[in-house]
């Protein structure tokens, strides 16, 4: 069985990290996680992967090449594609523990090679924040069915690099939103080499979180969070080196009125 790098925080960013590597194995991408809540506890969950920097770098390299033939044959790609998880292959759906929730998910890909733009957005409109926890569980397993360099084969998501880690837990009650940070465990020695490799690849990658409350934020309990000028949005940004080193505390409690 292939060794895995186990990380006990970060929730859905772990499978998104794997998904991002499929597109370029590059540090040139940024991820934004967004939770927007309504007063009744419903809302929208998004994970946006911006690979524009990677696209720009690829364009720069192609321009620096001895490129008469390259430029003449360079193909411009422009697309805006929306995929419903309800239409996913059965081989993926069978891995879901919560198909009623996960089938409501959507994936949108926008690409414009001429303008160095590429984004992939995963989203879920939820009725209760508990659905986000279930959605993340399935995202850590269901996408292992994709044929990729990170997928060892038929064994499933737990053998996929960055898979098998713990999931953070979101909760909501009137006037308060919280995210509990899962405890870390010491990294196994055989996984340290993988961690060092990923740190080099993702040295410049950024991961941000944005929580949008249905009222004015009164108090935030957690490390390095910022209340934005609208007084209803709480944000935080860090780099992937911190995540890989298991130095990230995602725990937060946001009280609003």
Layout of secondary structure:
Elements: H1 13-24, E1 30-37, E2 43-50, H2 52-64, H3 68-73, E3 78-84, H4 90-93, H5 99-102, E4 106-112, E5 117-126, H6 130-139, E6 169-173, E7 176-180, H7 189-201, E8 206-212, E9 217-222, E10 226-227, E11 233-239, H8 240-244, E12 252-256
Parallel strand pairs: 1-8
Antiparallel strand pairs: 1-2, 2-5, 3-4, 4-5, 6-7, 7-12, 8-11, 9-12, 10-11
Textual characterization of the structure:
By secondary structure, this protein is of the alpha+beta class. Helix content is 26%, strand content 30%. The chain has eight helices and twelve strands. The chain has helices at 13-24, 52-64, 68-73, 90-93, 99-102, 130-139, 189-201, 240-244; strands at 30-37, 43-50, 78-84, 106-112, 117-126, 169-173, 176-180, 206-212, 217-222, 226-227, 233-239, 252-256. The strands form two sheets. An eight-stranded mixed sheet has the order 3-4-5-2-1-8-11-10. A four-stranded antiparallel sheet has the order 6-7-12-9. The chain is globular and about 50 Å long. Mean pLDDT is 74; it is low at 1-18, 20-26 and 144-166.
Strand coverage percent: 25-35%
Please give the number of β-strands.
Answer: 12
Give helix and strand order, one letter per element, not per position: HEEHHEHHEEHEEHEEEEHE
Distance between the termini: 50 Å
Low-confidence stretches: 1-18, 20-26, 144-166
Helix-and-strand structural type: alpha+beta
**What portion of residues is helical?**
25-40%
This entry's quaternary arrangement is: single chain
Per DSSP, the total helix count is: 8
Task: Report strand order across the widest sheet.
Answer: 3-4-5-2-1-8-11-10
Shape: globular
Largest sheet: 8 strands, mixed
Q: Supply Rg.
A: 19 Å
> What would the average pLDDT be, to the nearest integer?
74
